């Protein structure tokens, strides 16, 4: 429910601007072009002093008025945004009440009277699932709102929804109705393929939730799941709320660009550069700063004993809770419990993959290590610095970048050819061409957003002109915002509305007189993350509220990883590049050097990915570490054994390894698993038939993205590939097979 309290009126300029934007229906801004110079307005960009008003509320609730109006109206995302903590709390309670009522109605149906409509239909789009747009309105802003109170209220909403979903999966009375329906003539002969799949998925979800347990154990399981959700939430809050600042003199940042230094000089301390722990600060330092001590201090700030409050203790608590959950459900470990519901099917299959890859990569990885070590040895000699005889954790990124420079790849020079605005608009052009889609940007001021930098796009199928959904882009770092790069699936589509996705990134922002320039690594990241948006929007299943009706976690990265290949194709790089001053494309010599250096150090980097996967599986294994001290011992042992690099004393990347404290727990191996599949998809279809071949693009959209998680994803891949998946292309891409 909306709060009906009267707010302070807008100042005259804001009121006039917002009144105009509310009435503005026309929109002719396609293909991701900027709309900042078309006379539209955004609340956050006018004066910044006005409180929420009826006008801003009209924007926040515009979906209720415009999505059903004329075809010429601005079609905004179907979310009625909430503007105060009180509104979030009230709406959350309304959804929770409706969720319980929905389940109670199912449970009250006599077993002999169950039908698809009175039982299964109610489970496909329950009030507390993302097919309800108000779920996003209640909980999403915890990741990005500039208002700490809004973030707190949204975080609390997320916890309550998680608890509600746990309670729903524990409803034996509802489970009994699903079982009864599964045996009816209607279910066995009267349903479509998707609906039958949904019934099977629902049954398995209930059974994996422990409904075969005694009442006492069932209650215990519910408590454990709720405790784990709280622990994960606290961990994420420590990450998102971090405001650490480091201060360095310009000479301590030697090697970083002059622009990087000047942008941070004197912001907080005269004569010092302010450095946060966000990616636009730490990546340039890790890759280009010549001062090893500076790199060490930044590394320690992220992973050392004072980093992110009690996160290491929270990891220890979380893995113990998950082990107890797995034991209650009859599994030897959380890793086994998770793997059995993934594409892999078992922990053994994952173990075999990682062992096989590590064995084949070790020799090449040692060669890569020695190459980097020699670079360090030579540089220490040239700079008259004592050589300590090893690669430290804070050395690998720097000397990896030095190696690329020795191959003719100057990351800083290359940045000049990748201004952010051009990369974003061109990336969207490529995806539209490839997948048969049309994007139209909404004018700022015609939709509500949580920050003035947020952009919003409407997506249609080009051939039919049918609406598919929307996506938001929120690309730059700020206090209180999610600190990594990720896609949030805000709304799942159903029969009444399209999907809505949001990209949260921390790409460098433009400064006065100079646009934001991206490293090629940032270009790849943006292209990858945008692939996740396309996956969410192009999925055609409705009511995906069961695990089997969603894409398996160990496949979900494969489509985006495959699309990273576009950022290494000459024809695509020529489109993505445009010098920020001259407008020239990336010169052929630089482009060729960059492509040829693609696999430089790749074995060493792959061993790091195997280490992260192993670490994840170890802490979620049959005997998880019980304390922060045991976690420290594990990292100290495992890191050098696989990556060849010692772990710095007291440092522990588990303090900031957010993947393991959310839905990726015991699933990080999925990146390696998906890389194998992505290499196969690219080599078999796109590399052979053309990276911008529209037929292959549409096959990919319809055969891989559209099915979601319906049935076995291997069957969908087999159809797309024309044969079962193979690891041959992956091994060739790593130089293991010729």
What can you see in these coordinates?
- The protein has a 5-stranded mixed beta sheet with strand order 3-4-5-7-6, with helices on one face. A two-stranded antiparallel ribbon has the order 1-2.
- 52% of the residues lie in helices and 5% in strands.
- The protein is mainly alpha-helical and 738 residues long.
- β4 and β5 form a beta hairpin.
- The chain is globular, with a radius of gyration of 26 Å.
- The protein has 30 helices and 7 strands.
Structural class: mainly alpha
Got a strand count? 7
Radius of gyration: 26 Å
**Unreliable runs, pLDDT <50, ≥5 residues?**
1-9, 23-46, 68-72
N-C termini distance:
63 Å
Estimate what percentage of residues fall within beta strands: 5-15%
Strand arrangement within the widest β-sheet reads 3-4-5-7-6
Name the average pLDDT: 88
Q: Number of helical runs? A: 30
Q: Main beta sheet: strand number and arrangement?
A: 5 strands, mixed
Shape: globular
The level of helicity is: 40-55%
Subunit organisation of the chains: single chain
Short description:
With 738 residues, this protein is mostly helical. Helices cover 52% and strands 5% of the residues.
